[in-house]
Amino acid sequence: MNITCEMAEDLLPLYLEGTCSADSRAALEAHLHICPTCREKRERMERNIPTLPKQAAGVVPLSDCARRIRRHRLRTAGLVLLLSVLSVCILTMCLLAVDDMRRQANPTVFPVEDGVWNLTAGELETSAETVGEYVLFTNSTRISVTAAEDSGYEGEILLWDAEENSAPILYGHVDERGNTCVFENLTSARYYRITCEGGANVSLTISEGRVVSFWHSLGTVVNTLLGR
Ligand SMILES: [Zn+2]
Q1: Ligand 1 centroid, distance to 82 Cα (angstroms)
Q2: Mind listing the pLDDT tens digit for each residue in 68-83?
Q3: Number of separate domains in the chain
Q4: Do 100 and 132 belong together in one domain?
């Protein structure tokens, strides 16, 4: 069966998809055999590019090959380098986190003057009324104040520089929903004092609130690296 170029063009997509009938296929192939225009069309469609390149389809010049291989190698090398740098960064952060965790678990207890409560050596159990009498030292960056859970206490907790009584440095709040407040970004370079508004008989636990957890330490390391 002879078909026209228009018919061939209609059949080409089905032919390339392999969905046209055996008769149509035979007719199209017969037409392609004698019609260079339609052959070109078929090649264009096969390569899915608008124009047919000069050299025969499927043959890639050697220089192109070399360029592709070079590009591929460069990409691979770049990726390997990136992954290596990333691995080293992650490993370093993990090691720093483990080190921090170790320090949180076994903090160094520095000697302090008489009359100063060293929170690194042990937490302080006291009451809201008497807490203000203690001068506190920590070599952590945190002091945590926890009111007894069933006390129903609600009030402000004030953190003072022990040698500077004009105004509190930080304020905290405890209530039934959160019976702990944590003062952060503290330093071992000064002594602290804590006072408590109201709730005279409420028992309080003052500690460094150290968290011994890899993920917490990792968070600390990341924050330090980011300068937060
Ligand atoms: Zn044709």
Answers
A1: 53
A2: 899 999 999 999 999 9
A3: 3
A4: no
The model's pTM is: 0.57
Residue 12's domain comprises 5-47
> 47 alpha carbon to ligand 1 midpoint, in Å?
19
The 3-state DSSP class for residue 19 equals coil
- Tell me the CA–centroid distance for residue 5 and ligand 1, in Å: 4
Q: Which 3 state secondary structure label does DSSP give 37?
A: helix
98 and 147 housed in the same domain: no
Q: Could you tell me if 208 and 142 are in contact, meaning their C-beta atoms sit under 8 angstroms apart?
A: yes
8 Å CB contact between 107 and 138: no
**8-state DSSP, 39:** H
Q: How would you classify residue 97: left for phi > 0, otherwise alpha for psi between -120 and 50, otherwise beta?
A: alpha
pLDDT at residue 162 is higher than 80: yes
Residue 159 shares a structural domain with residue 197 = yes
